[in-house]
Structures are given as structure tokens and as C-alpha cells.
Amino acid sequence: MEFKDIVIKRYATKKFDTKKIPEDKVNELFEMIRHAPSSSNTQPWKIMVITDDKMKEKLRPVSMNQQQITTCSHLLVFCANIDFNTIFNKLIEMLPHAEPYYSGLKTEFSKMSYDEKLCFAQKQIFLALGNALNGAKSLGFDSCPMGGFDKDQYSKILDLPDNIVPTVLCPIGYAADEPRKKIRMPKEEIFF
């Protein structure tokens, strides 16, 4: 399938058939997500992968009781990682030639408030989410971007540290519903 077809045919699946995606396909998707772009290559995300049905049952009530949570094969919880000190240290270790650049960014980020760091990281997450959504379709399965969940309850249930903030969900699996007609603004409303 060409990229154009993937983008047009992909839709927000509302119900999955509970069938498990083969691990090799899931790992292919993880590679696509891992290679997502991010500002200054910061990659300020952590993605929790939930396959345990009991955990999905626990999360469904704090996810507006949406059935995607319990019918999906894998639930990807995209979290903002706001520990930029550690992120920049790892990047310096991986790219020693870029040490002056990342040291400068480390200094700048140390002046940012919690909310500013969170906002920056969450913007980057949506780049990785785009790879997840289109990547899933390219591999023959489906997905659904979800913002309707209680982030504080997710943090509590998943026992996440303070620097890891749930931002968006992406259940993946095989659709058990039919896509609705896509409604998009005309290009004249978007491009000017």
C-alpha cells in the first residue's frame, strides 16, 4: 500500500476483535515509532506497552469506559518524559561530537518550568504517535488515538514516576468495526 493510501484508509478504530498481533509485526511497528522525528532529536517519550487483560480491565473505567482499551491487542501509553537532564546526558554519550550543543540545551532546559518541559515533550509525542497510527495501517492492523482518559489515574494505576506523564493512548489491533466516512475540512479552510 502506498503512503497516500495508508493515510487515507487509516481511521480511529472503535472496537478491536481481541486477536493478538504477532510479535514480529509489533516489533516492526516499534521500530517505526522509535525512528519518529523530534526537536533536537530529544525523543522525550516513554511508551508503556500493556498486553495484560487484567490491567486493561483496570484501565477501562478511567478511560471513559471505551471498549478499545479492552478489545485491543496492545495498548500503547505514550508518556512525556520530562527528565531532560538524563535525556541530554544520554544524547551526549551517544553523540560525543554534539556535546557542546546538548550541553547548551541542557542549560536552557534547566531554566524551564515543569509546565514548559511538559508542553515541549507532549508536542514531540504526537510526532511519534503519527508514526504509530500510519505504521499500524501499513503493517495490516489498526489503531485509535485516544485523549479521553484520566491521566492522574493512569499514573497511579501504572505506578509511574513523576517525570513520566501519560499523554495519549494508542490501542492497536485488528478492527471489529467499519470505518465511518471521513470528514475533513476542505483544503481552502486549511491552507492559506
Task: Walk me through the topology.
Blueprint: H1 3-9, H2 23-34, E1 45-50, H3 53-59, H4 68-71, E2 74-81, H5 84-94, H6 99-110, H7 114-138, E3 142-143, H8 151-157, E4 164-173, H9 187-190
Helix pairs in contact: 1-7, 2-7, 5-6
Question: How would you sum up this structure, described in words?
Answer:
The chain is an alpha+beta fold. It has a single domain (3-176), classed as NADH Oxidase (3-Layer(aba) Sandwich), CATH 3.40.109. The chain has nine helices and four strands, in the order H-H-E-H-H-E-H-H-H-E-H-E-H. A four-stranded antiparallel beta sheet has the order 1-2-4-3, sandwiched between helices. It is globular, with a radius of gyration of 18 Å. It starts with a helix and ends with a helix. The relative contact order is 0.23. The mean pLDDT is 97.
